[in-house]
């Protein structure tokens, strides 16, 4: 049951990314017009995943609101930290093989490990 929701989110996010790449290649003017809105559709997958997960867990309204606020604060914190680290990396000497997505994925993995330390800290 749980994996079905994860699969929904992954399929939607992947489809949006493929559509974005297709539009970028076939219609650059449309791509420029849509701008940031295409990647933001992928963010909606996180919202969908959050809602589906709250439904799966049979959370009450108050628990769902608390879960949503907590997830929003956590997402904002993670994105802010990631932006700060990427800003520092831009001015750092990173090996040529690790530039771009490679170092970003490594940083994201390390951040995920750091945030996993908080799992189970609060229980509702």
Automatic annotation (TrEMBL):
It is a multi-pass membrane protein. The chain crosses the membrane at residues 6-23, 30-53, 65-85, 97-118. The keyword Repeat does not apply. This is Electron transport complex subunit RsxA. PANTHER family: INTEGRAL MEMBRANE PROTEIN OF SOXR-REDUCING COMPLEX (PTHR30335), ION-TRANSLOCATING OXIDOREDUCTASE COMPLEX SUBUNIT A (PTHR30335:SF0). It is found in: Endomembrane system. The keyword Transmembrane applies. Its main location: membrane. GO terms for cellular component: endomembrane system; plasma membrane. Keywords: Membrane, Translocase, Transmembrane, Transmembrane helix, Transport. It comes from marine sediment metagenome. InterPro entries: NqrDE/RnfAE, NqrDE/RnfAE_oxidrdctase. It holds the Pfam family Rnf-Nqr.
């Amino acid at each position: 049951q749980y994996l079905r929701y994860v699969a929904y989110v992954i399929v939607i996010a992947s489809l949006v990314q493929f559509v974005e790449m297709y539009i970028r290649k076939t219609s650059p003017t449309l791509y420029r017009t849509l701008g940031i809105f295409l990647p933001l559709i992928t963010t909606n997958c996180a919202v969908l995943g959050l809602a589906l997960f709250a439904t799966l867990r049979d959370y009450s309204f108050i628990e769902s609101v608390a879960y949503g606020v907590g997830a929003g604060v956590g997402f904002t914190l993670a994105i802010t930290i990631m932006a700060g680290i990427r800003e520092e990396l831009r001015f750092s000497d990173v090996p040529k093989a690790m530039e771009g997505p490679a170092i970003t994925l490594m940083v994201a993995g390390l951040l995920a490990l750091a945030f996993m330390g908080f799992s189970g800290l609060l229980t509702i």
